[in-house]
Amino acid sequence: MKWSEFFTSSIGKKFVMGLTGIFLVLFLIVHVSINACIFADLPIFNAEDNGRMFNVAAHFMGSTVLIRILEYGLFIGILLHIVQGYALTVKNRAARGVGYAVNLGNRGSKWYSRSMGLLGTLILLFLILHLGHFWTKARFTDQLSPVTYNGVEMHDMFTRMKDVFASPLVVLVYILGCISLAYHLAHGFQSAFRTVGVHNKKYNILLTSLGYGFSIIVPLVFALMPIAMHFGWVA
Amino acid sequence: MSSNNMNLTLKVWKQKNSQDTGRFETYQVKNVSEEMSFLEMFDILNEELIREGKDPIAFDHDCREGICGTCSMYIDGKPHGPWQANTTCQLHMRAYKDGDTITVEPWRANAFPVIKDLMVDRSSFDRIIQSGGYISVNTGNAVDANALPVEKDKADAAFAAAACIGCGACVAACKNSSAMLFLSAKVSHLALLPQGGPERKTRVLNMVAQMDKEGFGSCTNTGACEAVCPKEISLSNISRLNGEYIAAGLVSEK
Ligand code: HEM
Ligand code: SF4
Ligand code: FES
């Protein structure tokens, strides 16, 4: 079997979907951990950190070669995931030319498992907005104000977050983005492992529970960031 | 005998041939005994239609005991009707009550074109089986059944997978019209047994290639197939199929 045959087969395409999905899940773990540094400024920690911990962590993520390489990998992964996701969605829909008068609906499966393309599209729209808010500003412009710690100058991302999340509309859109992600992962997390061939009962049970936990906790922590910034819980 | 007879309204898909666009026709069926099977109700309706000089409703059936897999009816949005782990032929009218309206459609998938009314062409499944769903053995004396030791758990799992009757309900229920539950049952059944070992890799590669060629969709793991399967084929077979295919595809010699 040639590589091209493998990767154009229905299972080969899903293999790419599952692998890139798991890769994106790993990325989310890093992303949510770094950003959670903003919570060092919660009053309960009494740290008077003024976003330093977060700024330093964010700066580190932009400053080493290894992470730059991973950044390219991440973009390739997202692109593959999106292109393959749409290609599969279109092909799968086309496999039934004439539909039913009465649908099986929720009697056979969860609505979000049937809506991965729609949920992915909502995530994609959110992603474009989100990259515009932070990543493009940091990488391609000098619009972000600088801050200096121990003689090292870096972007003051913390202040940027406060500015962006001053708008209640932006906060709302971010929350909707997090909800889309939650449902996408509620199905996607466990599905990805099935796709790459995990069939042991004990692992599937474990991964399903882990998946539900992940898809609730990670988007919730993400959603709390714009909320906390907006209401001045971290200042 | 029960006297709980009922009068029902049936909305049934009528389509002359594969070229016809087709439409729903409404029929009244009177005096249906709750002890009839769903197909017997159709028999009675058809006899009535023939007496009236009308075209009877074409539907597939053979064994009428849940083993041949031909009785493909999509009843009120669910393949094989409202009961769990059940075929249309084993659905009984006690599942309904007087005055009910029942909508009956054929399996819908491009890979299962409608031949007439509720009959669809499932020869795509046959071609998938022909592409690898067998083991090759030289003829000669039958080998003693105990000569090949099989682990009990694997024998049970293979047996459970072998219960698939090839009805196509999984395809009918799937939003992608995917045949993965069917194929996973066939591949698992042989991959789990020592007899399936020699052709294990070529089998899975060829059968998936044929499935793709027939125009079935891919799998999103929604679980709709497992929910309607009359033989309760487990979704975990699909994961096993994925693993078999990925391993075979990545390490194949060519
Ligand atoms: C951080 C962002 C994302 C993560 C973590 C993620 C994760 C996942 C995972 C784990 C799966 C399951 C793969 C499988 O069943 O094998 C999946 C499926 C899918 N994703 Fe995403 N995804 C993300 C963004 C997107 C985006 C932006 C799209 C866009 C259009 C998208 C579209 C899809 C589709 C259509 C599927 C279903 C494919 C199928 O099962 O047929 N995802 N995703
Ligand atoms: S897997 Fe179940 S639903 Fe699909 S063909 Fe086999 S018996 Fe029918
Ligand atoms: S007629 Fe054979 S399974 Fe229903």
TrEMBL record, chain B:
CDD domains: fer2 (cd00207). One of its GO terms (molecular function) is 2 iron, 2 sulfur cluster binding. InterPro entries: 2Fe-2S_ferredoxin-like_sf (IPR036010), 2Fe-2S_ferredoxin-type (IPR001041), 2Fe2S_fd_BS (IPR006058), 4Fe4S_Fe-S-bd (IPR017896), Beta-grasp_dom_sf (IPR012675), Helical_ferredxn (IPR009051), SDH/FRD_Iron-Sulfur (IPR050573), Succ_DH/fum_Rdtase_N (IPR025192). GO terms for biological process: aerobic respiration; respiratory electron transport chain. Its cofactor is [3Fe-4S] cluster; [2Fe-2S] cluster. Residues 155-185 form the 4Fe-4S ferredoxin-type domain. Belongs to the succinate dehydrogenase/fumarate reductase iron-sulfur protein family. This is Succinate dehydrogenase iron-sulfur subunit. It comes from Flavihumibacter petaseus NBRC 106054. The lineage of its organism: Bacteria, Pseudomonadati, Bacteroidota, Chitinophagia, Chitinophagales.
